[in-house]
Amino acid sequence: MPDGSQMRSEVAVVLPCYNAESTLQRALDSVFAQTYRNCHVCAVDDGSTDRTLEVLAANSHRCSYLSQIHRGPAAARNRAIQMSDSPFLAFLDADDRWLPAKLQRQMALLQEQPDVGLVCSTCLLGESEKEGGRALPRNVHPTGRLFQELISNCFVFTPTVVIRRGCLEDVGLFRESLAVSEDFNLWLRIAARWRIAYLQEPLVVVHKRPASLSATVPDAERLKNGIAALEDVRATCGQLSPLEARALAKALAERFYFYGSFLLKTGGKAPARKALASSLSFRMSHWRALAKLAASFLPLRLFQSLLHGITKSRRRSRIRQLTPRKSTDVARFDSVTDRKESAGDRYF
Fold first, then answer.
1. Is residue 92 within 8 Å of 27, Cβ to Cβ?
2. How many domains would you assign to the chain?
């Protein structure tokens, strides 16, 4: 198979693929249509069982690719990163696509601001930028040390990212032990040491595909990985400021609360109490964790009745806050929520 190690370009496009035959060509074409031409695709097939390899082979004159046994998105991206020595790395998922000026806009910023390690942008959710897709996220500072902002609101969508290789060499690659949240973990490790830039214009169209690399991860694993991702940041980023450390502790409290709530709902009272106690160890004022911990000692039927009432109340409140103009807006909101690894939101 073609090997990208000899393909020198300014930007290596990191493209992991898993059972992506229906969307992969669209993703590749969006790279080939870039107004910024000094880039080369480094794709890794992560053990697909469909025609993904055939699609890559058909494009071998324009991209390099390798195949490996199924190991997950972190391992696939790391393998693709190692396929070249390009000074910049851009990330694209096989179900998404870039808009034509994406690389040109981001590379111009990186060349103008050498102290910026990572640049990302707004993205569109939907089939087409002409079909009313909602631009997300919003209200993000354009540049700076954005660790606190990032950990409270993950505004970095992986297909919007371009990063300096030197930045990645400084903080390390994706954590392959994480089935999900591996990208959030890396962005936080970068934000703890480097300035980040955010372009408030949509440069990517993000799609949701049931067979994507992380879509089949069960909720329990998703929640545990979310905790592990933040605990890794806590263990490896000792240079955090007091405000950043407090923001991290607050985020860990929330993740443990989500996990404890999930365990309570699925019947695991003992491990739920442990998770909720961990939430309170990071944030003693977390009244919801305290209330859930107390409720866990109620008889099962009474607890389930109470939980059902709380869930219905919160759902009505959430729908009022969203006030969607079209029913499709709700689906788009759910899509971006899933992609931001917030499965715990369903277990308030």
1. yes
2. 2
